[in-house]
Amino acid sequence: MFKNLKGRLKIVQELFTFLWKNKIWWMSPIIIVLLLIGILILFTVNNPAAVPFIYTLF
Question: pTM, whole model, 2 decimals?
Answer without folding.
Answer: 0.53
